[in-house]
């Protein structure tokens, strides 16, 4: 039972990332009708926003520390972050330690700007083009973005630690009546799951309870009729592209302590997340989220040693097998609209 619970927790952790990326993919497809294969790159850019913010906080200058000497008795030269001069050593140290969650404030405007530039500069020219053209151009954009990151940050993963307060693991088993230290789970992975739930709930609440969101949902259902009412639905859809980029970006920010940011991590998540979107149903936001968590849990169980020993490699293909089965029996996906991908 304890192994089952651990696998469920692992699945929710993976599913959180899948669901957040798939949510952004579905927002773009549902509003603009664009299959955006660059969305995984936006997740990767979010991770590197955390790296960049951490480096900005660490900019330093050299000072002489009279209280410390080298082996010859000369005062040592030490590097002091500029932020320490401005805010004092204690506050500066705390901010540097909490750089990952604080970098969300840096990532949101950056990712919205990048999203708007991509949509206005490239995507808008492919609205009425076939999906194959959209896939090719956005996949090419993803390659360009990852090569830019590789040029500036290098090819090696960059460790981006979580705040020290969240190092270590939570004794999750005690809450369920197990003996102490039976089920231990990393604090930051738990935080990432709850963070993803908050973001997903926030996006759904925005679409459901705000006037802007209601207009967007109406435009997703019948774009022409909304346009005839005198509403500039294109501007609202452009904003939704920026919002989807921001969701992918902050998902990447918070994932940085779990998997060290590297230039190809966007591609690693993109293919799986696109499969999640297809399984959930193209254009269905609830379907994307539900499929993300369900497939994350399924992949986690398929990674159990006893399963892998019995069916070698099953953990690598289980999501694709499920996708094939679902699409053969229900081409529009679990919660997709009738007629989508059923022609």
Low-confidence stretches: none
Number of helices: 15
| Overall mean pLDDT | 85
CATH hierarchy: architecture: Orthogonal Bundle
Strand composition percent:
5-15%
Order of helices and strands: HHEEHHHHEHEHHHHHHHH
Give the N-to-C terminal Cα separation.
45 Å
Percent of residues in helices comes to: 55-70%
Text of the CATH class: Mainly Alpha
Number of domains: 1
Q: Based on Cα principal axes, name the global outline.
A: globular
Largest sheet: 2 strands, antiparallel
- Strand order in the largest sheet: 1-2
Subcellular location: Cell membrane
Keywords: Amino-acid transport, Cell membrane, Membrane, Transmembrane, Transmembrane helix, Transport
Family: Belongs to the binding-protein-dependent transport system permease family. LivHM subfamily.
InterPro entries: ABC_transp_permease, BCAA_transport_permease
């Amino acid at each position: 039972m304890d192994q089952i619970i651990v696998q469920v927790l692992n699945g929710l952790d993976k599913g959180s990332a899948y669901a957040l990326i798939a949510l952004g993919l579905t927002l773009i497809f549902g509003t603009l009708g664009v299959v955006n294969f660059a969305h995984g790159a936006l997740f990767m850019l979010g991770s590197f926003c955390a790296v960049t913010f951490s480096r900005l906080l660490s900019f330093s200058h050299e000072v002489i520390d009279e209280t410390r000497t080298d082996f010859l008795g000369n005062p040592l030269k030490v590097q002091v972050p500029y932020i320490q001069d401005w805010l004092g050593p204690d506050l500066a140290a705390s901010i540097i330690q909490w750089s990952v969650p604080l970098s969300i404030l840096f990532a949101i405007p950056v990712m919205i700007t990048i999203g708007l530039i991509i949509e206005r500069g490239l995507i808008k020219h492919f609205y009425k083009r076939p999906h194959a053209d959209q896939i090719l151009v956005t996949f090419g954009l993803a390659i360009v973005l990852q090569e830019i990151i590789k040029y500036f940050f290098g090819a090696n993963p960059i460790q981006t630690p979580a705040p020290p307060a969240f190092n270590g693991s939570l004794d999750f088993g005690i809450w369920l009546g197990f003996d102490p230290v039976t089920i231990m789970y990393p604090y930051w992975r738990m935080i990432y799951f709850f963070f993803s739930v908050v973001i997903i709930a926030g996006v759904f609440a925005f679409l459901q309870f705000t006037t802007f969101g209601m207009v967007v949902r109406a435009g997703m259902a019948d774009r022409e009729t909304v346009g005839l009412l005198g509403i500039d639905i294109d501007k609202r859809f452009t904003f939704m592209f920026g919002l989807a980029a921001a969701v992918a970006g902050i998902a990447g920010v918070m994932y940085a302590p779990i998997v060290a940011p590297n230039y190809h991590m966007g591609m690693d998540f993109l293919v799986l997340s696109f499969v999640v979107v297809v399984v959930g149903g193209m254009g269905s936001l609830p379907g994307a989220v539900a499929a993300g968590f369900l497939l994350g849990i399924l992949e986690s169980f398929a990674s159990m040693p006893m399963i892998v020993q019995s069916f070698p490699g099953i953990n690598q293909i289980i999501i694709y097998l499920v996708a094939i089965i679902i699409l053969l029996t229900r081409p529009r996906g679990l919660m997709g609209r009738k007629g989508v991908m059923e022609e």
